[in-house]
Structure formats: structure tokens, C-alpha cells
Amino acid sequence: MLAALSTALLRHKKIRTTVAKAKETRMVVEKLITRAKNAVAAEGDKKNIHARRMIARYIKDREVVKELFTEIAPKVVNRPGGYTRVVKLGQRFGDGAEVAVLELVDYNTGQETAKAAAKAKAKKDKATKKEEAKASAEKKEEKKV
């Protein structure tokens, strides 16, 4: 079960699960990322096959292992640990279990899109205010004439 959750987290960068499963998966994923990070840092011209095989014991999907070594590990090479974040969401309606989001820290895509949406909204509001001011100025001109 932890292998499947770990694979899903590394593939999608964010998963929604119970708090207990998130905390356990976090420990497994942190160790896998650390092993990959150390292997990438030590690699020169040759790939560290041993580290890849050790991680492939838990992560059965080859594409995810490749992504871990080519994208995720180089991105976190300067981070001393704490690659994941658990955000509690509340209780699930069906059974009342505590639900959380487990995500990779350097891949918080939700926050980036929220920032972009906020900027777009601010820009739209500013344009709307300018149009309203222009329309009210035109009405005042019409009243004078």
C-alpha cells in the first residue's frame, strides 16, 4: 500500500489520502528522494544503477523512477530534507476519517495557479475601474451639454 501511495505521489506530485496514510507515506518517500538525491549528486558520467535498483524495489513503475532521478532529485539537491508536506483538510463525509493532502514541497502547483489567478483578477478589476471612471466622465460631459 505504501509503495502504491509513494508511486502516486511521485507521479502526480500531490495526493489526497487519510492523515495516517499520509504520515506513513511521507517517511517512505523522504527516504526514496534522499537516496535518489545522493545518487544524482555522486554521479559523474555513469548512472548509479545500484541506487536506481534499490528504489525500483518500492517503485515498480519505470517512468516514475526515471522521473525521480531526472526531475525531482536534481530539483531538491540543495534541500537538506523535508521534501514533502502534509496539509490537513478535515473529515471525510462517508466515514469521518481525517483527510489530508500529501504533496512535494518544490511542486506546489496549486499555489502558483492561485497566484496567477489573483494577478489576473487584479488586472481585470483595474481595467474595470478605468472603464467605469471613463463612463462616468462621459456622463458628466453629456449633462453639461
Briefly note the structural class of the backbone: alpha+beta
> What general form does the structure show?
elongated
What's the helix count? 5
- Measure the end-to-end span: 77 Å
CATH architecture descriptor name of the largest domain: Alpha-Beta Complex
Q: What name does CATH use for the topology of the largest domain?
A: 50s Ribosomal Protein L17, Chain: A
Would you count the extended β strands for me? 3
Low-confidence blocks of residues: none
Q: What is the C-level CATH assignment of the largest domain?
A: Alpha Beta
Number of domains: 2
Strand content: 5-15%
Measured as a percent range, the helix fraction is: 55-70%
The main sheet comes to: 3 strands, antiparallel
H/E series, N to C?
HEHHHEEH
Integer-rounded radius of gyration: 24 Å
- Give, in spatial order, the strands making up the sheet with the most strands: 1-3-2
Mean pLDDT over the residues: 87
Could you explain how this protein is built, in words?
The chain is of the alpha+beta class and 145 residues long. The protein folds into two domains: 2-105, Ribosomal protein L17 (50s Ribosomal Protein L17, Chain: A, Alpha-Beta Complex), CATH 3.90.1030; 108-145. It contains five helices and three strands. A hairpin with a 6-residue loop joins strand 2 (84-91) and strand 3 (98-104). Helix 2 (19-42) crosses helix 4. The longest helix has 36 residues, at 109-144.
